[in-house]
Amino acid sequence: VEASGIAPAIMAAYRFEVPCLFAKKAKPSTLADGFYQTDIHSFTKNKTNRVIISEEFLGENDRVLIIDDFLANGDAALGLNHLVEQAGAETVGIGIVVEKSFQQGRKRLEEAGLKVSSLCQVASLQGNQVTLVGEGEENA
């Protein structure tokens, strides 16, 4: 979803040598007909946006890797997956830069049958302290 997830999505697309497509938060005036849409609630911004993707760019033969900057409750990734399903395409996985592991996002995505990979998993945010998953554990 525009805008903060675009940079990691572009880099993933570059790495895998595939096209990059992002969902718009508003229907452009140049888009007349033929689009998929869904409402996505942003936990971070506490706001619901209607997001759209043109049918021109997403079809039933596509395999989609959803990339986003943060995973909290999973609403954005689930909404994007809903757009993929509307197109009859397949979501092959969800790639996240920073996962807030203390929230329910991963659980909700996995319960929906989606594979999730994160670059960084935050275990907690307490007292101005960021603790990562596995941080402070003894090496075996």
From TrEMBL:
GO terms for molecular function: xanthine phosphoribosyltransferase activity. GO terms for biological process: purine ribonucleoside salvage; xanthine metabolic process. Keywords: Cytoplasm, Glycosyltransferase, Purine salvage, Transferase. This is Xanthine phosphoribosyltransferase. SUPFAM superfamilies: PRTase-like. InterPro entries: PRTase-like, PRTase_dom, Pur/Pyrimidine_PRTase, Xanthine_PRibTrfase. NCBIfam families: PRK09219.1 (NF006671), XPRTase (TIGR01744). It comes from Staphylococcus nepalensis. It comes from the Bacteria. Its EC number is 2.4.2.22.
